[in-house]
Structures are given as C-alpha cells and as structure tokens.
Write a structure and sequence with these properties.
3-stranded antiparallel β-sheet; 4 helices; alpha+beta; Arc Repressor Mutant, subunit A
C-alpha cells in the first residue's frame, strides 16, 4: 500500500532533465551532472541522461549550501616571533 501511495505522489511531480534542473538551480548543467553522479542530488540515470524530480530539485535549492573554497588545513604557523 505504501509503495503504491509513494508511486502515485511521485507521478504528480514533474520530471526534469539536467538542463531544466540547471535552470531551476541557476547552475551550469555540468555542475548538476556532477551532483547527480556523486549522489548529492537525487536522480535516476536513464540511458545517457538523468531524470530528476522537481520536488527533489526544489528541496536541494532550499538547502543551505556553503560557497567558495574550503579553508586550507593545516594553517601555516604565524610568524609572530
């Protein structure tokens, strides 16, 4: 019963390709493909392309993401001699 309910609710959701998801996320399509490949963005591989649910893309967009480069570790010792 639960699987049927989940399937019906998923059918109401729009399916996007990488280019459409990139427009929603305001990212380059290659970045969206990378997120799909690494599992950061839920998606299904169909042939050579990806299928993404609009609700998953919107949820990913709402997540707080860090931007920029991570800090370099270990930090070099300060020269306060």
């Amino acid at each position: 019963m639960f699987a049927l309910t989940a399937m019906l609710s998923a059918m109401k959701d729009r399916i996007l390709n990488v280019e459409e998801a990139a427009e929603v996320l305001k990212l380059h399509p290659s970045r969206v493909r990378l997120f799909c490949d690494t599992g950061r963005l839920p998606a299904r591989k169909i042939g050579k392309g990806w299928a993404l649910l609009l609700s998953d893309v919107q949820a990913f967009k709402r997540q707080e993401r860090k931007t920029g480069r991570p800090p370099r570790w270990p930090m070099p010792p300060s020269s306060s001699s």
